[in-house]
Design a protein that fits this description.
The protein is 90% helix and 0% strand. The chain has helices spanning 2-9, 12-49. The chain is rod-shaped and about 60 Å long.
Amino acid sequence: MAKKEKEKKLNSKQRAYEKKQEEKGKKVVAWIIGCFIAMALFYLIFVAGNF
């Protein structure tokens, strides 16, 4: 219920900014996860190369 009240008080410019920030946040999280996956793959290749 509090969220609905918050949404009513926001004007269109504020809603657009909030949506833009949310999209940026999702993009950053995706990059971080991608970097972790890449580092894990490099580690696996490094470990497999030492045998």
